[in-house]
TrEMBL record:
This is 1-deoxy-D-xylulose-5-phosphate synthase. Mg(2+) binds at D148, N177. It comes from Ectothiorhodosinus mongolicus. PANTHER family: 1-D-DEOXYXYLULOSE 5-PHOSPHATE SYNTHASE-RELATED (PTHR43322), 1-DEOXY-D-XYLULOSE-5-PHOSPHATE SYNTHASE, CHLOROPLASTIC (PTHR43322:SF5). The gene is dxs. Catalyzes the acyloin condensation reaction between C atoms 2 and 3 of pyruvate and glyceraldehyde 3-phosphate to yield 1-deoxy-D-xylulose-5-phosphate (DXP).
Length: 637
């Protein structure tokens, strides 16, 4: 469909509310076609968005957004929401620098009531809005749309438990696109959902409660009887126990049915849960057949679908692939190894391992906190846990990292993917802080590989240690150093001298080594591959400080509290006087963009680093270097 006659007339949900049910069906078709064409041009999250077209239309049709609060969980499914709320014209710049964010973002639109990107936050946020409106005496509805995967996180149940206790006016829409309940969706369930949300059922239930309140034993008997009857028809007993009135399941692709049910729910008070069944990729057969492949896509031809491009010559592996191969090799060598992932099997490179070693593989769902403490418990038995996790998601398990692993000095290896700048997913997915929040923990060993082979060797090093260890590596490929086939460790805490120069010494941590070597050639500077953030090679650092006028640290972590800070702290403790320049990621949240654009924005290109060093040698600061911190250590302690 190349034309969108009805969609062309919609610039806000207010116009959407004047449409008839028949027009809503037409709008669903047009919106789905536009989504497919748009994402095929720009890339982005496709399958989840195709699956929530009717739900998005129905919610905006029934509720008075943005006066009513609508919170999307994660936000993978928010493209239709963006289009219907006046941002259709910006979809051609989705997820690129200075364009539309790939997730709801508060400063982008008043319809984006809460910024998201991480899973399982919607119910807590919507509950806060409901309670805030109640406190201010405002009659505003709060709606949280959450997926069945996001419901696996403890935070979602914590929020529901609190909402049930508060009796808050909150509607949780469970977008179920994975549970095996599809046979329950049909005419009978549409009828039951309509009946259960209608005024007759609700009136009878509330009236009965008032009468039975005077007869507590009978009221308890009737409550349990109602739960058992409903439990035989719908899978909602768990939510009822949490204090929610459960309705559904309903067909999430029947826009007329959704509108009817949502209108009924709009008139009800208290915590409500609507169970909606959808299909990822709905309306586009390739995405329906393989929703995982179409979860996040680059540009493609919708007529052909995703087509594998033949490699004319062997391609160097990504860091993720290096980890996946190492994991299988290490598992063959040591049957104690067990791998853990919080619902990131494909992204973290665990597909092959999961198939080969299913008895030593645990996908815990979107439950990062549980993943870490589970690893700690496994380590207590003599098993050797490896936690594969993105840097941004490790943040969610920080208390467990501190209390359950580092404090007890348990031998858990963290394979931290997507460290440093990440790209189009924006600040919610950036891995900018892991060095800073891990470096302050006793008992931790932190490694930063500069190439693929070094990554493999560091994974072996961390695995063999009898204490917690982390190997953090960036998204995508490295410089192309082929990994060795063996399982060879590195000496702990030892750096590698890569170039001898004069006056300036560049201490590179991880991926920035490549550009540091380029700068070293240009300025005739010493260049060191530091390898370890903790423990540092303090002997070499002291020698470099004594032999050079300026030490420059370079890292793809925020400067604040990062690896450069560790070097400065050591020298200051030793009373060693030397000028220092710290280069890394800035003290702000960077927006979305390509990895190259974000590195340029941070001043982590060869030209920017060379300019910052030359200006420092002249006693000046670089006005364009947002990430630079310059310090003179001029006195002994």
């Amino acid at each position: 469909m190349d034309t969108y006659p009805l969609l062309d007339t919609i610039t806000s949900p207010e116009q959407l509310r004047s449409l008839s049910v028949a027009e809503l069906k037409q709008l669903s078709q047009e919106l789905r076609a536009f989504l497919l064409a748009s994402v095929a041009r720009t890339g982005g999250h496709l399958a989840a968005n195709l699956g929530t077209v009717e739900l998005t239309i129905a919610v905006h049709h029934v509720f008075n957004t943005p006066e009513d609060f609508l919170v999307w969980d994660v936000g993978h499914q928010s493209y239709a929401h963006k289009i219907l709320t006046g941002r259709r014209g910006g979809m051609d710049k989705l997820r690129i620098k200075d364009g539309l964010a790939g997730f709801p973002k508060r400063d982008e639109s008043p319809y984006d009531t809460f910024g998201v990107g991480h899973s399982s936050t919607s119910i807590s946020a919507a509950l806060g809005m409901a309670l805030g409106a109640r406190q201010l005496g405002q009659e505003r509805k709060a709606i949280a749309v959450i997926g069945d995967g996001a419901m696996t996180a403890g935070m979602a149940f914590e929020a529901m438990n609190h909402a049930g206790d508060e009796k808050a006016d909150l509607l949780v829409i469970l977008n179920d696109n994975n549970m095996s309940i599809s046979p329950n969706v049909g005419a009978m369930n549409r009828y039951l959902a309509s009946l259960l949300t209608g005024p007759l059922y609700s009136g009878v239930r509330e009236g009965s409660k008032k009468v039975l309140d005077r007869m507590p034993p009978m009221r308890e008997f009737m409550r349990r009887a109602e739960e058992h009857v409903k439990g035989m028809i719908v899978p909602g007993t768990l939510f009822e126990e949490l204090g929610f009135n459960y309705y559904g399941p309903v067909d999430g692709h029947d826009v007329a049915g959704l509108v009817k049910v949502l209108r009924n729910l709009h008139a009800l008070e208290g915590p409500l849960l609507l169970h909606v069944v959808t299909k990822k990729g709905f309306g586009y057969e390739p995405a329906e057949q393989d929703p995982c492949a179409y979860h996040g896509v680059g540009s493609f031809d919708p007529e052909q679908g995703l087509v594998s491009k033949p490699n004319k010559k062997p391609s160097s592996p990504t860091y993720t692939e290096v980890f996946g191969q190492w994991l299988c090799d290490q598992a063959m060598a040591d049957e104690r190894l067990v791998a853990i992932t919080p619902a990131m099997r494909e992204g973290s490179g665990l597909v092959s391992y999961a198939e080969r070693f299913p008895d030593r593989y645990h996908d815990v769902g979107i439950a990062e906190q549980h993943a870490l403490t589970l690893a700690g418990g496994l380590a207590c038995t003599g098993v050797k846990p490896v936690v594969a996790i993105y840097s941004t998601f490790l943040q969610r398990g920080y208390d467990q990292l501190v209390h359950d692993i580092a404090l007890q000095k348990l031998p858990v290896l963290f394979a931290i993917d997507r460290a440093g700048v990440v790209g189009p997913d924006g600040p919610t997915h950036a891995g900018s802080f892991d060095i800073s929040f891990m470096r302050c923990l006793p008992n931790m060993v932190i490694m930063t590989p500069a190439d693929e082979n070094e990554c493999r060797r560091m994974l072996t090093t961390g695995y063999l240690l009898d204490q917690p260890a982390a190997v953090r590596y960036p998204r995508g490929k490295g410089p192309g150093v082929a990994p060795e086939s063996g399982l060879l460790p590195l000496p702990v805490g030892k750096a590698e001298m890569r170039r001898n120069g004069k006056e300036v010494a560049i201490l590179a941590f991880g991926a920035p080594l490549t550009i540091s070597l380029e700068v070293g050639e240009r300025l005739n500077a010493t260049v060191v591959n530091m390898r370890f953030v903790k423990p540092l090679d303090t002997q070499l650092i002291q020698e470099l400080a004594e032999q050079h006028n300026l030490l420059v640290t370079v890292e793809d972590n925020v400067v604040a509290g990062g690896a450069g800070s560790a070097v400065a702290e050591y020298l200051h403790q030793q009373g060693i006087m030397v000028s220092m320049l710290h280069l890394g990621l800035p003290d702000r949240f960077q927006g979305q963009g390509s990895r190259e654009e974000l590195l340029e924005d941070a001043g982590l290109t060869a030209n920017a680093i060379a300019e910052a060093i030359e200006l420092r040698l002249q006693g000046k600061t670089c006005a364009t270097g947002p990430a630079s911190i310059i310090s003179d250590q001029t006195g002994k302690l």
